[in-house]
Design brief:
The protein has about 180 residues and is of the alpha+beta class. The chain has 2 domains: about 55 residues, no CATH class; about 80 residues, Ribosomal Protein S8, Chain: A, domain 1, CATH 3.30.1370. It contains 5 helices and 4 strands; from the N terminus they run ααβαβαββα. A 4-stranded mixed beta sheet has the order 1-2-4-3, covered by helices on one side. The radius of gyration is 28 Å and the shape is elongated.
Length: about 180
């Protein structure tokens, strides 16, 4: 049954379930207070159902089945999660948007691309935090054959929240 529910149906059923739970929790209260608790619950349910109706009238969704929604990009085309995205390479990269498990691969790819573009110095912004990302970045830099040296960035370039790496010259990297 759950596989054939539309988002609209699932949303309404969720609201009904919330109402039922609220009713079950309010029942002992109504026994102590009296019938006014039931009036409050009724008003709550009515408001909940009105809000549900307003949401679906104003922001109605397609009747796509749950779990079968398509990933679309801004232009409405199918999104391929395995596709690559080209973006301009600069002398720095902010690693905040990347999941921690991907940091070594991102840093490695960035270093190789930056080196190919001719950069001799790059800045990797990993953030201050407790140092987990910093160590992950530095461990990758320490093992990478294109990296000549690395250190904390100067205060005006991120301080200990960023690492500056000096890359080898083209001739140096080919002999290593």
């Amino acid at each position: 049954m759950a596989g054939s529910l539309t988002p609209r149906t699932a949303y309404v059923l969720t609201k009904v379930a919330v109402f039922a739970v609220a009713a079950a929790l309010t029942w002992p209260l109504s026994r102590m207070i009296g019938s006014k608790a039931w009036w409050g619950l009724g008003a709550f349910g009515l408001i909940l159902m009105c809000l549900t109706a307003v949401v679906f009238l104003a922001f109605g969704r397609n009747e796509t089945e749950i779990g079968e929604e398509q990933d679309l990009d801004e232009e409405g085309e199918d999104f391929d999660p395995d596709s690559t995205v080209d973006f301009p390479i600069e002398d720095f990269i902010d690693l905040h948007p990347f999941p921690p498990r991907d940091i070594p691969d991102v840093v490695t790819d960035y270093l190789e691309t930056a080196h190919a573009k001719g950069f001799r110095e790059v800045r990797l912004i990993h953030g201050r935090g407790i140092g987990v990302q910093r160590e992950r970045v530095r461990s990758t830099l320490d093992k990478h054959p294109l990296v000549e040296s690395f250190s904390d960035a100067t205060a005006d370039r991120g301080g200990w929240g960023a690492t500056v790496a000096n890359l080898k010259k083209e001739a140096d990297s080919q002999t290593s």
